[in-house]
Amino acid sequence: MYRLEELSSAQARELMSREDAIVIIPVGSVEQHCEGPLGTDLMIAQGVAEAACERVSGPCVLAPPIAYGFSAEWSLAPGTVSLSLQALQLLLRDVITSLVRSGARNVVIVNGHYGNSPAVEAALRDMMPSLPPEVAVVQVNYWEALELDVGHASDAEAEVMKALGYSVDFGRCECLQGSPRGAKVYVRPGEGPATLRSPARGLTRDFIGSAVAEAIEAALGAARGSRRPLP
Ligand SMILES: [Zn+2]
């Protein structure tokens, strides 16, 4: 595994332009997590991306994370730092375009925050016509890769943090019940809890890294495959 910030320009070019090289960009958020750290989703995105980067086949370059995300739903809570939708999408566009210009062909967003995922998806779709056809860009949401029902500041999220080496206690969270969040918005009504592949308890970094590496390779394969587009 290589860290982009530690490579020289020539090393980055040589590594990233290999056909089998994968470049991972962790995307997190800085937002209230009850009594736990504001950067929970950032810490998870980074930890998960690093564990997966160590385990994919072929060289893997880990780019510095995009720390802030789209956290409109928690913007009224102190400490939350949210990008506007447009800012996140432009940031993704600039980072991905730069990496592709440097030779990257397989670019992976490892996302740690649920609220980012529709924004990231829209940004990636928007970029399709402007990137060369040999490039694949995919988003992997870690909770989907782990098939875990991870709620905001939940026990499951604490278990993921623990597996990555952080000890957290999210404690009480009135903000989940009564504190102001603005208008109530709910989308994806068909979405229920994911099927648990394993109980969150006892999760290990090794399991997380392997499952996410597998999901990354599957997503890149699907992006390059001939699957019929959804309606
Ligand atoms: Zn979270």
Main sheet specs = 5 strands, parallel
Count of helix runs: 7
Shape: globular
The fourth-level CATH homologous superfamily is Creatininase
Oligomer: single chain
List bound small molecules.
zinc ion
What is the C-alpha radius of gyration, as a whole number of Å?
A: 17 Å
Domain count: the total is 1
InterPro entries: Creatininase-like_sf (IPR024087), Creatininase/forma_Hydrolase (IPR003785)
Keywords: Hydrolase, Metal-binding, Zinc
Pfam family, one: Creatininase
GO molecular function, one term: hydrolase activity, acting on carbon-nitrogen (but not peptide) bonds, in linear amides
Furnish the topology, listing elements before pairings.
Layout: E1 2-3, H1 9-16, E2 22-27, H2 40-53, E3 60-62, H3 85-101, E4 106-111, H4 116-127, E5 136-141, H5 142-145, H6 155-163, H7 205-224
Parallel strand pairs: 1-3, 2-3, 2-4, 4-5
Helix pairs in contact: 2-7, 3-4
Bound molecules: zinc ion.
The site of zinc ion (ZN) has 5 residues, from α2.
